[in-house]
Amino acid sequence: MKLVILDRDGTINSDSDDFVKTPDEWMPLPGALEAIARLNHAGWHVVIASNQSGLGRGLFDVASLNAMHAKMHKMLAAVGGRVDAVFYCPHSPEESCNCRKPLPGLFEQIGARFGVPLKGVPTAGDSLRDLQAGVTAGCEPHLVLTGKSAQYREGGRPAGLPEGTRLHQDLSAFVDFILERGAQPLKVAI
After folding, report:
1. 156 Rama class: left (phi>0) / alpha (psi -120 to 50) / beta
2. Which site from 34, 36, 39, 144 is most exposed, i.e. has the minimal number of CB atoms within 10 Å?
3. pLDDT average per 10 residues of sequence, the chain (190 residues)
4. Number of H helices, E strands in the chain
5. Where does the chain have alpha helices with state H?
6. Residue 9 annotated among the catalytic residues of the structure
7. Taking the model in full, what pTM does it have?
């Protein structure tokens, strides 16, 4: 099984300091949906791991989150793509859960649900905490220079990046890298 784990806000869609709270506010980044479709067409399964503390903060409810994801799925389908699953942490930072990135809980849930070890699974996000969570779970870290990391597009690197982190201009460039290197699927006993 070829698996990629992506962050959502700032990686697939525009992020906001005020949180993305409604389907109208959920807007894909240029080329992001097409990039996911290219992964799918090459046999990759795409899963999202996303902090959604707006739920815990009372800024939106699960119905609104589901509506945002329904919009995402519909827009992906229109370009021939899909996301196999969305895992999210609904907690506020004060709740000290294990599923809020930078902790690895969401990644561990993904590994358990899909029955695969996450060692070497590519993960891409726009923030240090996305990569820290993935690396703790054994994933290969990729930083996209969109969202919270857009400030590094002209150079520099965020402090504290996990060793071996690769930087990409956006999700499309990350997908180019994954497809060009011809990564082999993980061997999983079923």
Report:
1. left
2. 34
3. 97 95 98 98 98 96 98 98 98 94 98 97 98 98 98 93 97 97 50
4. 6, 6
5. 32-41, 53-56, 62-78, 105-114, 128-136, 171-181
6. yes
7. 0.94
